[in-house]
Amino acid sequence: MKRLLLRLREYTRRFWFIPTVMTVVSLLLAHQGISLEERWGVPDWLEFVYGGGEAGARSVLMAVAGSAIGVAGTVFSITIAALSFAAGTMGPRLLDNFTRDRGNQVTLGVFIATFAFSLYSLRVVRGVDEQPFVPHYNVTAALLLALASTAALVYFIFHVTSTINITHVINLLRDDLAVSLDRLTWKEPRTRHQPPPLAFWANAEEIQAPFGGYLQLVDVSAVVQWATEHQVSVRLLVRPGDYIFPNTVIACAVPTLPPDLLRFLAVGRYRTTDQDAEYAVRQLADVAVRALSPGVNDPVTAIDILDRFGDALCRLQGRTWPDGVHYGDDAQLRLVHPVTDFAGLTDGMFHMIRQYGKGSPAVMLRLLEVITAAAGCLHGAVELSELTRHADLAYHDALANTANPADRADLQERYRRFHVVVAR
C-alpha cells in the first residue's frame, strides 16, 4: 500500500497533473454551458450575461484564447530561463521545487483552462448563414476566466520572485529535513534490540535485484506481516537512499525465501526524502558547497544552512533512533534492515561544509557554534561522541588553514566553549 501511495503521490505532484485536471474540467464546463443554453436559453433577468451577437462573441473568445496561451508561453519561458540561471548557484533543487509547486501548477492550469474553454466555446458560434447560435453563458465565463488569468499572472510574478530567493529555498529544504527526521525517529522511548549475529544468516537464501535504481521506500510493516505469515526471518542489505545495482544481493531470508518480497520495495530513478533523511541533508549541504565555491564565494548562505542543521539537531532532543530490528506478533525475529543513525546524519551535515569551508574563518566559527548548540540540547553518549568528533575535525582543519592570529584566537575560544558544554 505504501508503495502504491508513493507512486500515486509522485504522479499527482508532476507539473502536468493539475493543469491537465483543470483543462478537462474547463472543457466539461464549456460543454455543459452550451447544452444548458441550447435547452433553456438565457432568461431575461440574467442581465450580467453577455448579450452581444455572433461577431462580438467570436471576437471576445478569440481574444481571450489567443492572449491566454500567448501570455502563458511567454511568461513561463522567461521564468524557466531565469530559474535555470539561478539553479547554477542553488542547485537543481530549485527547478524541482518550481515544477512541484502547487501555485505554479495552478497558474499554468488557469491559463490553459482559459484557452481550452474559449476554444471549445468558439467552435459552436454560428452566424446567420447557418442556424444562429451564440453561447452567451460561455462568453461570460470566458471573460471571468480572463480576469482570473490576470490575477493568476500577478500572483505568479510575485510567487516566482519569492521562489528564487535563496532563503526561501533553504527553508523549504529545512522543512523537508524536519519532516524526514520526524518520520525516522520516535518521540517516545522504545526498547532497542540487538540484531542477531552474522552466523544466524549463514544458510540464508538470497535475492538479487532484477534492475537498478534508488531504493525509495520499504514498507516495513507489510514486510513484517508477510514474513510472519510465511514463518521466515528477512534481512535487507540496503536502505532507502542506497543505489541498487542490477544482479546484486539486496536481501536474504531463513530458512527459505518466499516469492514476492520485491513488491514491498519501491525502486525509482530519484532519491526521495520519505524514508531517506540523509538525502534531505545532502540537498542542503549541496547548496552550501555551491555557495562556498570560488565562483560564487557566498559564505553567508553556508552559515544560513549551518543554522538550519543546528535547528534540525536540536529538534532531536529526547527522540529515539530506530534499530532496524523488528519482531512479529508471535515475538519472533522477522526483519532486520539498515537504518540511518546519528553518525551518518552528522557526517552528511558537516563533512562537505568543513572540507570546502575550512579556509573561511566565518564559516568554521559558525560550524563550531552550531555543534556547541547541538551539544547543549543532546545529552546521549553517542550523540556527544559524534559531535566531539566533528568539533575536533572542524577545529584542527580551520586552525591549519587560518593564519590571522585574531581568527585563530576566536577558533580556540569556540572550541573551548564546546568542551565546556560537553563537560556539563
From TrEMBL:
Name its species: Deinococcus malanensis
Q: Which Pfam families match?
A: DUF2254 (PF10011)
Q: Which domain of life is it from?
A: Bacteria
Q: What is this protein called?
A: DUF2254 domain-containing protein
- Keyword terms of this UniProt record: Membrane, Transmembrane, Transmembrane helix
Transmembrane segments annotated in the record for this chain: 15-34, 60-85, 106-125, 137-158
Question: What InterPro entries does this protein map onto?
Answer: DUF2254_membrane
Q: Keyword check for Iron, yes or no.
A: no
